[in-house]
Design a protein that fits this description.
By secondary structure, the protein is mainly β. 7% of the residues lie in helices and 41% in strands. The protein is built from one helix and twelve strands, in the order E-E-E-E-E-E-E-E-E-E-E-E-H. It has one helix spanning 182-195, and strands at residues 22-27, 36-41, 47-53, 61-66, 71-80, 83-90, 101-107, 118-122, 130-136, 141-147, 152-158, 171-176. It has a twelve-stranded antiparallel barrel with strand order 1-2-3-4-5-6-7-8-9-10-11-12. A hairpin with a 4-residue loop joins strand 9 (130-136) and strand 10 (141-147). It is globular, with a radius of gyration of 16 Å. Residues 1-14 have low confidence and may be disordered.
Length: 199
């Protein structure tokens, strides 16, 4: 049977970029008893990221953390008139206070039922922001994140065992393309899960 969680926590690199495609396992369970959130493992079964919402009823402020519990992104739900949107603020070693928006996610208007596609603006540079889309997909894929040209950035699918058996709705595989910030992609997935009430 496939491992869902590691036996020990081992430190990982502080950089969240890779020159090759990376695969992660997302377990849609918090490490905190009765908490909401998820835990993310690398291919070695080591914890890389975690999301713990200590106040289960409040999803207005959520934290994406590394394996040590250091906050990488503070994700806030905001409202402007009738529209809701989410902003992610990147934390640094010196200041974890919300200063500059790292990304903003807006839910695209959709009349039909099902998961909602989202528009993402990543404010890495105010003069040249990056734009992504989070697309709902078919039953095999939970969602895809694509850039403004339609190029695949990351894909989330239900995780399967080596024999092709689904491990359940709460165990996912996230594949991130090379030279993409893993923590940013994880932050976008957290917002997508919050929008679709999965966290």
């Amino acid at each position: 049977m496939a491992k869902v969680h590691p036996q020990a926590i081992v430190p990982s690199a502080s950089c969240y970029f890779s020159s090759k495609q990376e695969t992660f396992t997302i377990w849609m369970k918090s490490l905190i008893l009765n908490g909401k959130g998820c835990t993310v493992f690398d291919t070695n079964g080591q914890i890389v990221f975690r999301v713990d919402n200590y106040n289960c009823k409040c999803r207005n402020e959520v934290y994406l953390m590394d394996f040590k519990g250091r906050v990488l992104f503070t994700i806030l739900r905001k409202r402007f008139k009738l529209f809701k949107f989410w902003e992610g603020y990147r934390s640094s070693d010196t200041e974890s206070i919300k200063k500059k928006t790292g990304f903003q996610v807006r839910k695209a208007l959709r009349i039909s039922k099902g998961d909602s596609p989202c528009e993402v603006t990543v404010g890495l540079d105010e003069n040249q922001p990056h734009h992504y889309k989070i697309q709902s997909w078919n039953s095999k894929s939970v969602c895809k994140i694509v850039d403004q040209f339609g190029g695949l950035v990351a894909e989330l699918k239900r995780k399967q065992s080596t024999y092709g058996v689904d491990l359940g709705n709460d165990v996912l595989t996230m594949v991130v393309e090379p030279n993409i910030d893993h923590s940013l992609i994880m932050g976008l997935f957290v917002v997508y899960s919050l929008i679709n009430c999965r966290m």
